[in-house]
TrEMBL record:
<keyword id="KW-0812">Transmembrane</keyword>
<feature type="transmembrane region" description="Helical">
    <location>
        <begin position="190"/>
        <end position="209"/>
    </location>
</feature>
<dbReference type="InterPro" id="IPR000326">
    <property type="entry name" value="PAP2/HPO"/>
</dbReference>
<feature type="transmembrane region" description="Helical">
    <location>
        <begin position="161"/>
        <end position="184"/>
    </location>
</feature>
<dbReference type="InterPro" id="IPR036938">
    <property type="entry name" value="PAP2/HPO_sf"/>
</dbReference>
<feature type="transmembrane region" description="Helical">
    <location>
        <begin position="28"/>
        <end position="48"/>
    </location>
</feature>
<feature type="transmembrane region" description="Helical">
    <location>
        <begin position="123"/>
        <end position="141"/>
    </location>
</feature>
<feature type="domain" description="Phosphatidic acid phosphatase type 2/haloperoxidase">
    <location>
        <begin position="73"/>
        <end position="207"/>
    </location>
</feature>
<dbReference type="Pfam" id="PF01569">
    <property type="entry name" value="PAP2"/>
</dbReference>
<protein>
    <submittedName>
        <fullName>Undecaprenyl-diphosphatase</fullName>
    </submittedName>
</protein>
<keyword id="KW-0472">Membrane</keyword>
<feature type="transmembrane region" description="Helical">
    <location>
        <begin position="69"/>
        <end position="91"/>
    </location>
</feature>
<keyword id="KW-1133">Transmembrane helix</keyword>
């Protein structure tokens, strides 16, 4: 255990030692640590897609199936984020780890309360979103394959390309947030690993419950359609 804690601190120093040296890098990492997470709702909105009242044409049958799968993933992502936060609350009550700047001299780039450090909430939320998108990839591909007859090749790729791009963006955001939180001096690497584990576990649970959640998911999607939001 002492070896793990030593390596955790050593890796923190290896990353945090570069803080305060390059102004542009500092600003980039501050943005990643503080503000990048607020782009997660934008990813979800893009995943949901254009509502009915903003569409220029009716959806083709194949397109509609894929878009409904994406919107179901939107709902599961929200559930995964909530579940990840619950996991983090439980872990923080079981394991208390002070912030790096409380117990060590660090290069601190942002102001932060001296609360518990493990696990990282930012990382848990971002990995819950990214994990749900990644775990839903087989479902998207299956819907695309089933609809290959009703969609032209161009239409099929256009419909499927956006969720694939959003998945890549979400994974990149989650990793960037984790690295940035260590760089600015508010988390140890193990805090990031713990947060990522919470987020991915929550995403995995929500994906595994996809079949039992099918009925309430359909209710939500029908309600959104009735309100012309889908």
């Amino acid at each position: 255990m002492s070896w793990i804690l030593y390596e955790n601190y050593r890796l923190f120093i290896d990353i945090n030692q570069y803080a305060g040296r390059i102004p542009f890098l500092d600003q980039l990492m501050i943005f990643g640590a503080n503000d990048l997470i607020f782009l997660c709702p934008l990813v979800l909105l893009l995943l949901w897609g254009r509502p009915a009242f903003l569409r220029r044409r009716a959806l083709r049958p194949g397109e509609e199936e894929i878009i409904r799968a994406c919107r179901a993933t939107f709902l599961w992502s929200i559930g995964a984020v909530v579940l990840a936060i619950v996991f983090n609350m439980g872990l923080s009550h079981m394991i208390f780890e002070p912030r790096p700047f409380v117990t060590h001299v660090v290069h601190l780039l942002i102001a932060h309360p001296a609360d518990d450090s493990f696990p990282s909430d930012h990382t848990a939320v971002s990995f819950a979103l990214a994990g749900t998108l990644v775990f839903s990839l087989p479902s998207w591909l299956m819907h695309a394959w089933k609809q290959r007859v009703t969609l032209t090749e161009a239409q099929g790729w256009r419909t499927l390309l956006l969720p694939l791009v959003l998945m890549g963006v979400a994974v990149l955001m989650a990793c960037s947030i984790g690295i940035a939180r260590v760089f600015v001096g508010v988390h140890y690497p193990l805090d990031i690993v713990g947060g990522a584990a919470s987020g991915l576990a929550a995403a995995g649970i929500m994906t595994a419950l996809r079949r039992p959640l099918r009925a309430p998911t359909e209710v939500c999607l029908r309600a959104a359609s009735a309100l012309h939001l889908a």
